[in-house]
Amino acid sequence: MKHKRNTDAVVAFAKQKKKETAEKVDQAIKQLISQKERINFNTVATAAEVSKSYLYNQPEIRNRIEIIRQKQQEVTSPKNIKRNMNDESKDSLIQVFQERIRDLEKENKQLKEEIKKVNGKLYESF
User: Fold this and answer.
1) Where along the sequence do coiled-coil regions lie (predicted)?
2) How far is CA 60 from the centre of its chain?
C-alpha cells in the first residue's frame, strides 16, 4: 500500500515565505526612497537582507528596481540640473560673474601700474 505524501503544509509555508520576502523588499525600497538613497540591486539587497540573485530572479521586483534606478539617473543628470535653472538664478549667476570680472579687471589694472613703477625704478637704477 502506497502512501501519498501530504505536502500542503510545505507548499503553504513556501508561499508565505515568498510573500514575506517580497514585502521585505518592498519595505526596503520604500525606506531607501524616503531616505533619498540610490536605488540599485546592491542597496536593495543589503537593505532587505536578501541576495542580489533573488532580486534578479523576481521579474516584478527586478523591473521595479530598474525603473526607479533609471528615474534617479534622469533626475540627477547634469542636463536636467541645467534645465531646471530658472531665469532668476541665471540672472544672479550673471551678476556674480560680472562682479568677479570687474574685480579682476581692477586688480589687473593695479598690477600693471605696479609693474610700470617697478620697471621705472629698474630703469633709473641703470
Assistant:
1) 94-121
2) 23
Task: Give the span between the Cα atoms of 14 and 29, in whole angstroms.
Answer: 23
Q: From residue 102, give the alpha-carbon distance in Å to each of 4, 91, 93.
A: 92, 16, 14
- Domain-by-domain residue ranges, the chain? 1-84, 86-126
Cβ proximity of 24 and 61 under 8 Å: no
pTM: 0.55
Show the beta-strand stretches assigned E in the chain: none
- Total residues found in the chain within this entry: 126
39 DSSP 8-state letter: P
For residues 85-108, average pLDDT: 85
Class of residue 120 by CB neighbours under 10 A (exposed 0-12, middle 13-18, buried 19+): exposed
Q: Which residues contact 55 (CB under 8 A, 6 or more apart)?
A: 25, 41, 44, 45, 61, 62, 65
* Residue 9 to residue 101: CA distance in whole angstroms: 78
Q: Which three cell numbers stand for residue 5?
A: 505524501
